[in-house]
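Entry for the shared binder. Reason: the reviewer on the internal report wants the predicted structure included alongside the sequence.
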Amino acid sequence: MLMLLLWLLAFPAAAQVRIGVATMLPGEIFFERFGHNAIVIDDPATGGPVSYNFGFFDLDEPDFTGRFVRGDMRYRLVALPLSQDLAYYREVGRGVSVQWLDLDQDEAARLAAALADNARPENAVYRYDYFTDNCSTRVRDALDGALGGLLRQQLAGRSRGNTFRGDAVRLASPAPWLWLGFDLGLGPAADRPNALWDDAFVPMRLADALAGIRRADGRPLVAATEELLPHRLPPEPPEAPRPWWPWLLAGLAIAAGSRLLGQRRPAALAALALPFWTLAGILGPTMLFLWGFTEHRFAWANQNLLLLSPLCLLLWPGGWRIARARAPGRLFRAIAWLVAAGAVLALFLHWLPVLPQRNAHWIALLLPIHVALAWALAGSPSRTA
């Protein structure tokens, strides 16, 4: 009878469903720079642990590239054995840890049923947004639904002052082209200080937030943390302030050199300015396209348009004439000073208290250069009238 009683007591415990959040640290491929996560359902009644992974996309999907450009990406939830999901991370050296959550069996069963339904082919696809609806926010929302809004309740009213731009640029920093793309391409909406709830678009931020969640009775939500795979790659880039003054020194140095060269050899200065105007003439229309013709809403109203103006393309004919020791013409002078005035306007907008864009470093670099080029190649404003 004693053995039977012990067996009866042990059987329900052995059948307990465990819920965990697996966090995968950043990798080396550009789309792996931001980490990843998944929900793990460990139900002894159904075999080994299952990973519910919201990060799958299909490169062979019709119009995949077009959707990516337009900001209309499609991702999907896939349920697969945890061992299979971990195989890739083991191969490339990315660390993985799992936070086992202290859920009651009703909550665990509700979450498992919701995920199983969500993983059905007709429900699995969702419209991906890098900041507000990605693999990590889907994990956050699934947990919050199973917990009756507990996560939102404790995270929505707290902030560390992080921004979408700050985390995107920080995590992309090992790839210069990638962080430059984020920093130049994001508009002021990416600079609003986020609540911890919004910070959860980064899987590592979500893991940190979960570690601080408390149940109604004071118990921590995370019962235990287990390392599944060691991390063999460079660590996640640390948080660090980005001072604007080195950018200003560089801008002033280039401006002084441009002014001096323009006095002595204007043709040489024009030849050097042509590639700069070409680059601005490519980046500016790209930013304008993202604002006016795509769903990348965090790229809308980008004030860097005033620093890398599409008008720079119109400077090419006059600049080419100066490089050939010919007069640039009145239109060149007007456009050159209009471009410089746009950079001054960017500085004014940065000073406004209404959702300023955090582009002080780009203003510090590019404003002196635009003014110096206009002064050296187009003459003083009074001479252009």
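Summary line for the report: DSSP finds 16 helices and seven strands in the chain.
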